[in-house]
Amino acid sequence: MASDSAGFALSSRARRTQRQPISYLMAQAVENPDVISLAAGLVDADTLPAREAFALLEPMLCTRPSARAALQYGTTQGLLSLREKVLAHMAALDGLAPGDLAGTPDDVVIATGSQQLLFILADVLIDPGDVVITGWPSYFVFTGTLEAAGAHVRCVDIDEDGLVPESLERVLGTLKAEGLLPRVRMLYTVSYHQNPTGITLAEDRRGTIVDIIRRYSTDHRILIVEDAAYRELTFEGRPPRSMVRHDPEGRHVALLQTFSKTFAPGLKVGYGLLPHGLVEPVLLQKGNHDFGSANLCQHLVLAAMESGAYARHVEALCRHYTAKRDATLEALREHLGCLAGVRWTHPSGGLYVFLTLPEGLATHTGGPLFARALEEGVLYVPGEYCYPPDPTRTIPENTIRLCYGVCSIEQIRAGVAALARAVRAVM
Ligand SMILES: Cc1ncc(COP(=O)(O)O)c(C=O)c1O
Questions:
Q1: Per the structure, how many domains does the chain have?
Q2: Looking at residue 195, what DSSP letter applies?
Q3: Cα(114) to centroid of ligand 1, in Å?
Q4: 260 Cβ below 6 A of ligand 1
Q5: Is the whole model's pTM more than 0.90, yes or no?
Q6: Which end of the chain is more exposed for a tag (fewer CB within 10 A), N or C?
Q7: What's the distance, CA 289 to chain centroid?
Q8: How far is the CA of 234 from the centre of ligand 1 (A)?
Q9: Pairing state of beta strands 184-190 and 131-136?
Q10: 381-382 and 399-403 as β-strands: parallel, antiparallel, unpaired?
Q11: Which of 261, 262, 352 to mutate to test the pocket of ligand 1 (most atoms within 8 A of CB)?
Q12: Is 1 inside any structural domain?
C-alpha cells in the first residue's frame, strides 16, 4: 500500500490500489483456525483432481516430445490446440458447433486465470475518469481492478433474474444526459450464479441488454464483459446461453471462462473469446505481462479435456456442490426462516448465497454482529465489500455473502446455526 512505500514515489496506479478487503478476512481465518469460514470463496480442497492430474502428467512428461512441448515457453495467445478446444467447448455449452460462433481460435486468448484477462481488458480500455457499469452488487476483486485503473463505476440493479434492463437503460440515459456517454467503456457482469449473489442473468434479458449496449454505442463500441466463471457449476435446469449468442457479428461481447472453479485453481488457466479488434491490443499488453501463460498448465487442461477427465470432474463437482448448496439453504430455513426481514437468494449453481438481514443490522467487520459471529465461531463476508463505489447510490449495510465452497456439510450446518445465534443476540 502507498503508506508502506518507505519513501518511494509510487505511480498514480499504485496509489489508487487498495488492499483487497478479503485479505483482512483471510487474516481472521488464519488467526482463528477453529472458526468456520463461510467467507473464503475457494473451491473444496477435497475435490481437487490430484489423481487425474497425475495420471495425465505422467505420460506427458515421460515422453520426450510431449515433455519438451509442455515444459518449453508457449505463445502469448496460448496453445492453439487448447484455443480450438475451448472454443468448441464454449460453442457446445451454447448448443452450437464451433463454426457457429462469431469467433475463431484466433479470437481466443488463454490467460493466467480469467482475472488476468479482466485486468488486461481494463488496462486496454480504461483511462482514469472513464466509466464502467457493473451490477449492484458485483465481484469485488474486479471492483479493486477498476479502482486501480481510475474508473468511475455506476451500477445497475439486480433482481432474482439478474441485471435489470430498465435500470441499465436509466443509468445509460443519465450518463448521456451528463455528457459522459463517450467515457462509458464497459458493462461488466457475472452472468451465471454470480459472485456474490448466486443469481443468473435470465435468458430473456440477455438479448435486451446486448441491444441496449449496442444502441448506446454511438461514439465507440461499449464492451460487455460476460464473466462466466461459474457457468459450468450449474446444478439444475439448463443454464441460459451466453450473451455472445446475441452478438452474432462478434462486436460487443467478451466471454470469459476459467478452469479455476471447474478443475483446479492452482493451475490458473482462464480463457476468453474476444470481439474482433480487441485481441491485438490485449495480446500486446499480455506480451508485456508474461508473453504467455504457464505452458505446462495449458497442456494439462487440454489433456484433461481430451481424455474426458474434465467432463467427468465437472459432473462430480456439480453433485458435490449441490449437496452443499442444499445444506446451506436448509440450515438458513431452519435457523433464520422465521426471523422477519431476513431473506436470501436461491442459487441454481455456483458457490454463493447472499443474505439480507433486517434494516439497521450492520454486518461490517467493526460492528457487533461480526464480532459476535466470530465469538460464536463463524466468519462471513460483509456484503458491503461487494458494492462498488457508485456515487449515486448508498451501500446497504445489512447484507452478507456466504460461500459453501470450502466447508463440509457439517461445518455449513454448524456455521449457519452460529450465524443465526449471533444475529438473534445482536437484534
Ligand atoms: C466472478 C469471478 N471472476 C473471476 C474470478 C477469477 O478466477 P481465476 O483468475 O482463478 O480464473 C473469480 C475468482 O474467484 C470470480 O469469482
A1: 2
A2: T
A3: 6
A4: yes
A5: yes
A6: N
A7: 21
A8: 16
A9: parallel
A10: antiparallel
A11: 261
A12: no
> Residue 349: phi, psi to the nearest 5?
175, -170
At 361-392, the pLDDT tens digits run 999 999 999 999 999 999 999 999 999 999 99
Q: Widest CA span of the chain, in angstroms?
A: 66
Of 86, 139, 142, 158, the one to substitute when testing ligand 1's pocket (max ligand atoms within 8 A of C-beta) is 139
Q: What is the CB neighbour count within 10 angstroms for residue 96?
A: 16
Cell of 409: 456439510
* Count of positions (residues) in the chain: 427
Nearest CA to ligand 1 atom 3: 229
Q: In ligand 1, which atom is closest to the CA atom of 139?
A: 1
337 and 351 both lie in a single domain: yes
Q: What is the pLDDT of residues 62-114, one digit of tens each?
A: 999 999 999 999 999 999 999 999 999 999 999 999 888 889 999 999 999 99
Structural domain includes residue 17:
yes
Residue 28 has phi, psi (to 5 degrees) of -60, -40
pLDDT value of position 4: 64
Q: Which atom of ligand 1 is least distant from the CA of 41?
A: 14
Q: Are residues 336 and 371 in the same domain?
A: yes
Determine the distance separating the centroid of ligand 1 and the alpha carbon of 365, expressed in angstroms: 23
Cell of 320: 458435490
DSSP element (H, E) containing 223: strand 223-227
Task: Give the pLDDT score at 1.
Answer: 45
Among 307, 330, 356, identify where a domain stops: 307
Residue 379's domain spans which residues? 13-48+312-426
Question: Which domain-ending residue is among 281, 307, 333?
Answer: 307
**Spatial distance between the Cα atoms of 110 and 93, rounded to a whole number of angstroms:** 18
CB of 263 closer than 6 angstroms to any ligand 1 atom: no
Residue 5, pLDDT score: 78
Indicate if 40 and 59 belong to the same structural domain.
no
